[in-house]
Amino acid sequence: MTSAAAATSRTLSPALTKAIDQFRPDAVRGYLAVASIGLPTVATVEAQLADIDLWASGRRDPVDYDAIHENTRAHYAKLVGVGVDRVATGSQTSVMASVFAAAVPEGAEVVCVDGDFSSIMFPFLQRKGIRVRAVPLDDVAASITDDTWLVVFSLAQSATGRIADAAAIAAAAAAHGTFTVCDLTQAAGVYPADASMFDATLCHAYKWLCSPRGVAFMTVSERFQAVLTPIQAGWYAGDDVWGSCYGPAMALAPSARRFDVSPAWPAWVGAEPALAMFSGLDMNEVWAFTSYLGDSLCDALEIPQQHQPIVTWADADQKDMAKLVAAGITVSGRAGRLRASIHLWNDESDIEAVAKALR
Predict the structure, then answer these.
(1) What band does 252 get if pLDDT is binned at 50, 70 and 90?
(2) How confident is the model at residue 4 (pLDDT cuts 50, 70, 90)?
(3) 62-279 and 3-40+282-358 share a CATH fold
(4) Closest Cα to residue 208, out of 99, 335, 344?
(5) Strand 310-314 to strand 148-154: parallel, antiparallel, or no bridges (unpaired)?
(6) Alpha-carbon distance 126 to 124, whole Å?
(7) Nearest to residue 225, comparing CAs of 76, 88, 35?
(8) What's the pLDDT tens digit per position in 309-329?
(9) Which fold has domain 62-279?
(10) Distances (CA, A) of 277 to 75, 146, 281, 354
(11) HSE-up of 230 (CA within 13 Å, CB side)?
(12) Residue 263, number of CB atoms within 10 A of its CB
């Protein structure tokens, strides 16, 4: 059993134990910043190095990447519980959010969360002629009215790690005929996220899904797809991708793939093994494992348990941040608080190192 497995004082599944062993223990000690950027698996590093070698030796053809891209799409669909035909791919969540912002009717209301990540807020705030209302996370469901065309929120808040009451928000939206957009970037890969609950979801895979930056996903329901325009459509959105390189004649894919943008190929090479690994894990077990370590950190710091893998505490003057950096521990600061985020490679030695550095 690995040290991380022993840290939870419980028996881990073979799949989770194998996943933990995909991270290099010599390189990851003291890294508590997955909410900023995840770490690659051994398989991801190997795949990208092999791809670079093929590219450098002139043995890569763009068509080679098609199967890699589609396999990764399928892994993500499995992870978030939707059909593969409901998954679109891209490189940035803000670009995908702009598709939703462009669809909001003139004069309509959008409800979002005060303090949510800017990539899912700014595309709406930049739209002229619509009303955007930001409310506290706990008030989102109650704030939805018959005038609300769309509610947009993160399942896990970037600054604090708090989990939204997704069931209550989805129920309130359904009662008022409101569309729902949920960002899964700080949830997918650590929390059991069900994208089928919402009209659309967004996710960038470079955090908890441990993929290279430049791999992002959108899921969209058939109902919501009908009111969206693929304003960023290019050749990769065509029903026949390689037959859509030249206009003006082009047939868009009938599925969510009509919202695809052409992939940054090397990034998807690295994402494929990572998404394959995460799609085979029980996210309830991953959440229990990481939340256990999160509460262990809270106990060590003598602060109330937060029951989540993102642990934050007040550090406006960044004194704690300076102590941790000096001790070789990687964390982040957000909104006047220190943010430590825990994933599969962490164990109790990391918790002990943080507590020691702050004594």
Answers:
(1) very high
(2) very low
(3) no
(4) 344
(5) unpaired
(6) 5
(7) 88
(8) 999 999 999 999 999 999 999
(9) Aspartate Aminotransferase; domain 2 (3.40.640)
(10) 9, 42, 7, 29
(11) 23
(12) 23
d(CA 278, CA 209): 7
Burial class (CB in 10 A: 0-12, 13-18, 19+), 134: middle
Cα→Cα distances 1→5, 17, 95, 229, 263, Å: 6, 8, 43, 51, 38
Annotated domain spans of the chain: 3-40+282-358, 62-279
Q: Using alpha carbons, list the distances in angstroms from residue 10 to 14, 102, 104, 172, 342.
A: 13, 48, 48, 38, 18
Per-residue burial over 265-303, b if 16 or more Cβ lie within 10 Å, else e, is: bbbbbbbbbbbbbbbebebebbbebbbbbbbbbbebbee
CB of 305 closer than 8 Å to CB of 79 = no
Prediction pTM value = 0.95
Residue 217 DSSP label: E
Q: Which amino acid is at 358?
A: L
Buried b (16+ CB within 10 A) or exposed e, 159-181: bbbbbbebeebbebbeeeebbbb
Length of the chain: 359
Percent of the chain at pLDDT > 70 equals 97
CATH class of 3-40+282-358: alpha beta
Quick count: other Cβ atoms within 10 Å of Cβ 116?
Answer: 20
Q: What is the pLDDT of residue 234?
A: 93
One-letter amino acid of 34: V
